[in-house]
Amino acid sequence: MAEALLYKPLKNSQDSRSATVQCGLCAHYCVIKDGTRGKCGVRENRSGVLHSLVADVIAAANLDPVEKKPLFHFMPGTRTFSIGAPGCNLCCSFCQNASLSQEPRARGAVRGQRVTPEEIVRAARESGAASISYTYSEPTIFFELMYPTAQLAVQAGLKNILVSNGFMSPECLEMLGPYIHAANIDLKAFTEEFYKERCGARLAPVLENLRHIVRLGWWLEVTTLVIPGLNDTREELVRIATFIRDELGAQVPWHVSRFHPCHELTDRGPTPTQTLETAWQVGLDVGLAYVYLGNVPGHGSESTSCPSCGEVVVERNGFSVLGTHWGERPGRCACGHDVPGVDW
Ligand code: SF4
Ligand code: SF4
């Protein structure tokens, strides 16, 4: 446990000794009274001092292919040391990691393994990883662990990857700015209703943070979990793809992923492959250069094709890179077209 970063005391007009604080880590900006926690369940006000309950705790650590984040244009074929802590600032009804993300909020329990930034970086180096990923639940809420770890990782020659719901505060993004190299951010839908009713959040801050990330210069990829009956209309998919094209750039890869019933959303089946193929086609028709299907192993659209000549330049199956077919150098197709990415 450690004192939290990014919060301020709030003095109300009736009581100048008020111990209430306001957290500034994510776009909820929770006002937290003494003895209580914020929405994420892992930041607690103790006598006017906000504490992070996950500044030294992880609940998951694995060595993953970077493609699993998913990042398809960032150091492909490398491994990334991936960590996550309990808790999340959102409460998505379809969360595939609910046992990790919702336990602090639902039951107050913060379970995990004690760890320091030095130990994480050492373990990452010893594993042979090229990067550290802050992932699984929501890295924003374990900022006090992620921030010093990312700084140490840079000193150790490792890259840092953020896999996030994109609901952090701009102040949080600014602090992370110099230390994060790539991000995969969820754009879960394109309506405020969806974010409010299905996630307990808002769409507008996510859109603003996506624009902010482009300005920071991180390598960015975007993921949309396509859920039958909730965000799978052509109109909504067109709006998402158009936002990516117009505000983030047509070169930003878009991953459209298959939903599987889980957590509170078990009243419908998995996303039909045909729906995902429609989303994929929508992305290409709108003008996105790189659209990928997720959670459909073996589907041809996991590979990267040159948008100019159509030839496959990076061949994938699931999270595995099977081979590359570049021209004169990695990142340049044989037709001469440059495919954007980092360390092809
Ligand atoms: S991180 Fe977000 S949800 Fe958690 S206490 Fe801070 S403002 Fe609230
Ligand atoms: S943002 Fe991600 S981890 Fe958090 S509740 Fe939603 S799906 Fe789960």
Describe the structure.
The chain has 344 residues and is an alpha/beta fold. It folds into 2 domains: 2-52, no CATH class; 57-302, Aldolase class I (TIM Barrel), CATH 3.20.20. Helices cover 26% and strands 23% of the residues. It has 9 helices and 19 strands. The chain has helices at residues 98-101, 103-107, 117-127, 143-155, 170-176, 192-199, 203-216, 234-248, 273-286; strands at residues 2-3, 7-9, 21-23, 31-32, 43-46, 49-52, 57-58, 60-65, 79-84, 113-114, 131-134, 159-164, 182-186, 219-226, 254-258, 291-294, 304-305, 312-317, 320-324. Strands 8-9-11-12-13-14-15-16 form an 8-stranded mixed β-sheet. It has a 3-stranded antiparallel β-sheet with strand order 1-6-5, with no helix packed on it. Strands 2-3-4 form a 3-stranded antiparallel β-sheet, with no helix packed on it. Strand 12 (159-164), helix 5 (170-176) and strand 13 (182-186) form a beta-alpha-beta unit. Helix 3 packs across helix 4 and helix 8 runs parallel beside helix 9. The radius of gyration is 20 Å and the shape is globular. It binds iron/sulfur cluster (SF4) (2 copies).
